[in-house]
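=== RUN LOG ===
request id: a7f3
mode: sequence -> structure
chains: 1
length: 300
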Amino acid sequence: MSDIPANLIPIPATQAAPSQRVRSYWGSVWNRLRYDYVTLFCLALIILIVLSAVFAPWLAPMDPDKSSMANRLRPIFHPKYFLGTDEQGRDLLSRMLYGGRVSLLMGIMPVVLATTIGGLFGVVAGYYGGKVNMVIMRTMDVFFAFPSVLLAVAISGSLGGGITNQMLTLTVVLIPPLCRVAETATSQVRTMDFVDAARASGASTASIISTHVLINILSPVLVYASTLVSVSIILASGLSFLGLGVSPPTADWGLMLSTLRQSIYVEPLVTAVPGVAILITSIAFNLVSDGLRQAMDVKA
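=== RESULT ===
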């Protein structure tokens, strides 16, 4: 055995290098995300806001629509009213809890609908290309010609107020940018080798899109959609502030900010409460989307 070179001597099984466990893509995403404490804190804050809105009937200390002119504009930290009262003497904490339902609904649902519709149009335009791409994307360019706020005001003014019309308005405004992101990502994926191999093997178009395209464009589309939640909340609050959103006495952060603005010189802290809620919620969603973008940018 002494004449056998050392590099030809077989390694015993007990000395073999241990195999390394390969993480999946989503496992790598979670591994990065769990050490991002800012993102986790903001995510916990969002969950807390959502839960407080969902359980508003049990958490609200008073009827949010019950007015009392004798108790109007009570200050913050009042013994009976923790966040004070509004211009009609309604408990502001109760209205904030119920208002979070409408504001979060207007922030999340339009993004979900716009992601579904805009993503579908973007995938079709990016995969087929040619005239199909031209028709879809030139139609989207028409909406891009108008600023988002101006387009939202114009559509909402034409449709009128109400939760349904406000949701429809925000969905229409958010479809074009999501369609553009999905179209760009699909155009890049459809030229890759694994898509050509699937096409050459006789796979159907529906199979290629569902198996190879959607899974590869999911990351950029979801990351971009998460950034639009805060935009949707701000747009919805702006429409309500202008009187183009929900109708009184429905509690909504934007509408509350509008009705309280006349009392800013009497109780400025009470007036700022809805605005602070909008600010904190929007920043939390923005920071979560930034953390999600960094976590999903995994270089394998």
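=== NOTES ===
The two ends are 43 Å apart (CA to CA).
Confidence is low (pLDDT under 50) at residues 13-19.
=== END ===
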